Each structure stands twice: as C-alpha cells, then as structure tokens.
Amino acid sequence: MSDGENAIVVIVRKFDGAEHRRWSARLVDRSGSLITLDATFEEQIEHDLLGPIPLGTISTEYYWLDRWYNVFRFCDPQRRLRQFYCNINMPPHFDGKVLSYVDLDIDVLVEPNLSYRILDLEDFEENSKRYSYPVEVQNVARVALDELVRLIESRSFPFSDT
Q1: CA 29/CA 45 separation, integer angstroms
Q2: Cβ-proximal residues to 1 (8 Å cutoff; 6+ apart), any chain
Q3: pLDDT, tens digit, for every residue of 56-69?
Q4: For position 94, what pLDDT does the model report?
Q5: Which residues of 59-68 are buried (b: 16+ CB within 10 A; e: fewer)?
Q6: Beta-bridge partners for 75
Q7: Please, which residues have CB within 8 angstroms of residue 123's CB and are 6 or more apart in sequence?
Q8: CB within 8 A of 92, min separation 6: which ones?
Q9: Is this model's pTM higher than 0.90 or not?
Q10: Per-residue pLDDT at 53
Q11: Cβ(152)–Cβ(160) under 8 Å?
Q12: Residue closest to 131 by CA, chosen among 20, 8, 10
C-alpha cells in the first residue's frame, strides 16, 4: 500500500476496547455515511472457514458510519470475486486517518452465487455474557443481521454488482 493522503489504518476492537486486529488500507470513496476502502493482503492468511487467503488478495471494504455491519469483498489480484465476508459491529468511527470499530462477533460468509452462511452466533452469545453487552446492543446486532441478510437476498448494494 502506498503512503499518502488516502492511507487509512483500520483497527478492530473487542467490546472492552482491546485491539483485536489492524491493517492498512486506502480510501477509495466517501459518499454520505458510506466509506469505501481497498486493502491488499501483504501475507497469506490461514482462515478457519475461508481456507488460505493468498498474498495479493484484494479486500474492498464497505463501512457505513450509521450501520451496525460492514462488508468486505475479497477478490483475486485480477479482481475476480472470491467471497464476501460481513461483520456485525458497532458503527465505526473515522477521523480521516483511522477507521475503528467494535466487532460483535457475528459474521456472514457470502459466496459468489450469493448463497450465505451465518457464522459465530455462539461467540456472540458467549461474548454477550463475557463483556456484558447491553440488551440494546444485543437487539440492534440482531436487527443488523436481519438487514444484512435482506441486502444479500435482494442482491442490493454491495451484493448487486457480482
């Protein structure tokens, strides 16, 4: 990733504020509450469900400052769609250089044919207790999951341009 005014650091936190992950990305677009970033995997990652994510995989990342989910579009270096990976999270904060959000554990894996699997509901339940998620946070996370599923099933943006 090149340095410059479009360089962004993405930080993922757990509910208690502890940093979980971080990576560098590039700001592609900002339109209303939607922020679009591009990132490139700088090393191969072994993922439990996705298998190996090869070096050079491109992640186009969609974050809404007013929504409780984000969507990552994973493509090979030729921009052929590999999968979508979606996270249920608290709305992100963006200061122009750092985009950070609190991960709420629930994920949705979406294949190129737009079939999908909801993942990590057990982690959500466990962490709801471990971190004492307020009831409102638990309820809004479930509503966000329903909204995300509706977007997938209706092939709405960002699932419309497969």
Answers
A1: 26
A2: 7, 24, 25, 26, 39, 40, 42
A3: 899 999 999 999 99
A4: 97
A5: bbbbbeeebb
A6: 58, 81
A7: 105, 106
A8: 35, 63, 65, 70, 99, 100, 101
A9: yes
A10: 82
A11: no
A12: 20
